[in-house]
UniProtKB/TrEMBL annotation:
GO terms for biological process: N-acetylneuraminate catabolic process. This is ROK family protein. It comes from the Bacteria. It comes from Kribbella antibiotica. Belongs to the ROK (NagC/XylR) family. GO terms for molecular function: N-acylmannosamine kinase activity. Pfam families: ROK. InterPro entries: ATPase_NBD (IPR043129), ROK (IPR000600).
């Protein structure tokens, strides 16, 4: 486990398939942006070489004796820094890679912490949007995939399981009441996952199932603005699993006071998305779920527009949470 000390310089990086953004020092310091040593940028290069290049890049950039927090767009064991695979970085290569161990071996003077980009996002969201009295805060991203993280602000902890994971909800069985959507495949290849319906690719799959043969990202916002009934039905079906999950989470954890929603789906559909989600959450489903008023939802949900949440800034702030990322 990595322990933060007051004397260490902060170093943060946000590693994506296209760019690696890095910053040493405070949150306001300049950002350096380099092309990522990824399969996306170097299709012919071996995964072994790409991983070695990534380690080299980060080890070269980290200041001496720094506290380094690296955000990755991949499932990560937060306890060790093992990366479980990332399509944009390493393609279909699925063998877990202990990048944390590699970095510690190469630069033992640096205190390395590797986090998933949704973890970095919840840290940034908590810092930017939380208010006094908020006990637990969550961040849900709906984009090419779906991920959620919850942080305990009272104890400054982000709990993870024995595999160092938390909130990988995209591949849970989907809560949908629509038999017409049965059997839709997820990006992972399995049917009937949360992401089969509610992610960006999921919305396209639902549209296809409904017989809508059109370019959904371009068509949907305009069709919703024109109150097209097919577009409204599509949105209703794709929002339903999200509403179901939020109801369940609030039922199990009434102290989950604030949740941010972000990612390409939320950004792209804007008020159409937030209005539909709040409409569904407003409906009473039982004595245990009496329906949430608009005022209650405005107090509990934050719909994050493009640029509101920054994984690099979040990674920079991860040091404040150490050693609270723990099982
Ligand atoms: Zn899946």
């Amino acid at each position: 486990m990595v322990t933060a000390t007051a004397v260490r310089t902060a170093f943060a990086a946000d590693v994506g398939g296209t760019w690696v953004r890095m910053r040493a020092g405070s949150v306001g310091a300049p950002v350096e942006r380099l092309r990522s040593p990824s399969i996306l940028n170097h299709p012919g290069r071996s995964v072994e070489k790409l991983r070695a290049d990534m380690v080299e890049l980060l080890c070269h950039a980290a200041p001496a004796d720094s506290q380094a927090a690296i955000s990755f767009g991949a499932a990560i064991d937060h306890l060790t820094g093992t990366v479980f695979g990332s399509a944009p970085l390493w393609g279909a290569e699925a063998t877990p890679y202990d990048m944390g161990a590699e970095l510690r071996d190469r630069r033992p003077d640096v205190a390395w912490q590797l986090v998933n980009d949704v973890t970095a996002a919840v840290v940034d969201f908590a810092a930017e949007q939380s208010r006094p009295g908020v006990r637990r805060v969550g961040y849900l991203t709906l984009s090419s995939g779906i991920g959620m993280r919850i942080a305990d602000l009272e104890r400054m902890r982000i709990p993870v399981d024995g595999n160092g994971l938390q909130g990988e909800v995209g591949h849970l069985p989907v809560m949908s009441s629509s038999p017409e959507l049965r059997g839709l495949l997820c990006e992972c290849g399995a049917p009937d996952h949360f992401a089969s319906i509610a992610s960006g690719p999921g919305i396209a799959r639902v549209a296809e199932r409904l017989g809508l043969k059109t370019e959904i990202p371009e068509w949907l916002p305009e069709a919703l603005a024109a109150a097209d009934p097919q577009a409204q039905r599509l949105l209703e079906l794709c929002v339903e699993p999200v509403a179901q999950m939020l109801r369940t989470m609030w039922c199990l954890d009434p102290h989950l006071d604030l949740i941010g929603l972000g990612g390409g789906v939320v950004e792209g559909l804007g008020a159409h998305y937030s209005d539909e989600l709040c409409r569904q959450l407003g409906q009473a489903t039982s004595y245990a779920d009496r329906g949430w008023s608009r005022a209650q939802l405005a107090d509990r949900l934050v719909f994050c527009g493009a640029g509101t949440i920054d994984a690099l800034r979040g990674a920079q702030r991860v040091g404040q949470w150490l050693p609270g990322i723990t099982s």
